[in-house]
Amino acid sequence: MIRLFLTRHGQTQWNVEKRFQGSLDSALTELGVKQAKLLRDRLAHEKFDIIYSSHLNRAYKTAEIIKGNREIEIIKDENLAEMRLGKWEGLKHDEIMENYSKEYELFWNKPHLYKPSTGEGYNELEKRVIGCLKGIIEENDGKNVLIVSHTVVVKQIMAYFENRPLEKLWDLPFIYPTSLSLVEIDNDIVEIKMHADISHFENSMKVNC
C-alpha cells in the first residue's frame, strides 16, 4: 500500500494581496510559515519515506518546514507546479474580472469550457499533473509519500481519485493553505481518508487564504 499525503503551500504575500500567482512566486507570509509549522507538528509522528514538491519556492519552503529534522529527500518536480496563468499572473482578481470577465467566469464556474488565450488550460494541467502522480505511485509502492503543491494541482489530484468530472473541479472542499488530504492505495483500491482537513488550524487562519 502507498499512502499519499497532499498539501498546499502556506499563505503567501500575493494571497494576501489577492493576486494570481501561477508560475510566478511570492514569499510565504508570517502566517504562511506558521501554517506550515502547525502541519509539521501535526505530522510529527508520521514516517515519511520521501517528499515531492513543486519547484516553486512557496511550495518548496513549505516542504522544508514540514520535513523538519527528518533525513529524507525533497524532490522538486516542475510537473507539480501551479497552473500557468499567462497574462493573469501578478494581476489582482478584480483587475482580471474587469479586463477578462468572460474568461474569469469560465475559469471558476465552467472550467470545462475555459480556453485561455495565454497560459495553460485545465486539460494541459491534468495531463502533466496526473502523469506525474502516476509515476510517483508506481515508484513508491509500500511507502508514505508527502506531496507539497498548489491549489489547482491538489484539486486536480483529488478529482482524479474521486472520478469527479472537470466541470465540478471547483466543488467544495476549499483547499486552504497547508490543508491536508490523505489517500491510501492498496492493489489499485483507492480510499480517501481525508480531504482538505484543517483541524491543525487556529480559528483566525482561514482569512486571506
Provide a quick synopsis of the model.
With 209 residues, this protein is α/β, with parallel strands linked by helices. The chain is 36% helix and 17% strand. The protein has one domain (2-84, 122-206): Phosphoglycerate mutase-like (Rossmann fold, 3-Layer(aba) Sandwich).
Supply database-style keywords.
single chain; 209 residues; alpha/beta; Rossmann fold; six-stranded mixed beta sheet; 7 helices; 36% helix
Compute the number of structural domains. 1
CATH superfamily: Phosphoglycerate mutase-like
Molecular shape: globular
Report the order of strands and helices. Answer: EHHEHEHHHEHEE
Query: Which value, in Å, is the CA radius of gyration?
Result: 16 Å
Largest sheet: 6 strands, mixed
- Residue-averaged pLDDT, rounded? 96
Q: How many DSSP-defined strands?
A: 6
Q: What is the CATH C-level name?
A: Alpha Beta
Largest sheet: spatial strand order: 3-2-4-1-5-6
Helix-strand makeup class: alpha/beta
What proportion of the residues is helical, as a percent range? 25-40%
CATH topology: Rossmann fold
* Uncertain ranges: none
What is the end-to-end distance? Answer: 33 Å
Number of helices: 7
Looking at the overall shape, the CATH architecture is 3-Layer(aba) Sandwich
Strand content: 15-25%
